Amino acid sequence: MKIAYYPGCVAQESGRELDMATRWVAKALGIELVSFPSFSCCGSGFVDEANLTLNVAINARNLAIAERAGLDLLTICSTCQGMLTLANRKLDEPSVRARVDPALAKIGVSYRGSVKVKHLLEVLTHDIGLDAIRAKVRRPLRGMKVGAFYGCHLLRPSAELASESGEEPHAFEDLLAAIGADPVMYRGRVMCCGFPILFVKPETANRIAGRQIADAKDHGAHAMATPCPLCHISLDSFQNKAEAAVGRELAMPVFHLPQLVGLALGASPEELGLPRHLVPVDPALAAIGRPASSVPSR
Known about the structure:
The protein is of the alpha/beta class. It is 46% helix and 9% strand.
């Protein structure tokens, strides 16, 4: 399988472990990731709120780069997935297309709309398939209870994203079961992590994150896993503040989706960037008999 790789902003900077894990898993599963340095930010949280036409044009340009190469596009960020997919949908509206096409023409770009945007979760569960992944598992995650945390932009708005149910999704849990983990069902798995307001109303955002983590913990989770780097920031990087906001200790390891898959396929914690996490993952690794990493956390 060959696909254009759109890592997004976080995975290239503060969340480089997500990119590390994605590349390791892709190689193990025979997925050829084609990088395009000219990709730009998807504009979420900034451009999309200020100028719809500009935001659609930015993402249409990214999609046009993949289209010229004859490739679909892989994202590893739920927010990027949402922005790129919504751009595809908006371009079906004649009024939007009439504004975007001339803007792209000024920089010599045209986009016909042929590219499908696929999140890594979809690629793993549908394109590669659970049976194929199950057959490659070398270290089943038996004993690890994991609460999947979908976040918002992978599921909603469901009509535009053509995703699975925003209330009762199951793809992530199906993948966790395929690699031997025990999926934990809890209400917070489809709720917001608080990131959209983290830098505007931090106390509220941290309280939201704390509630979701506490919900997973109260349902027996040893760890959480998310397909979104922004959710990972809220749940891992700001977990100490989330603890203060909800008034209880959480100590919840939070994995990126490909890190758990990589563990099951045989990667070491260091190859997956696990020592970079702020909340130590060693307690969760102990559930599957893995020794603690020898590399210190950042």
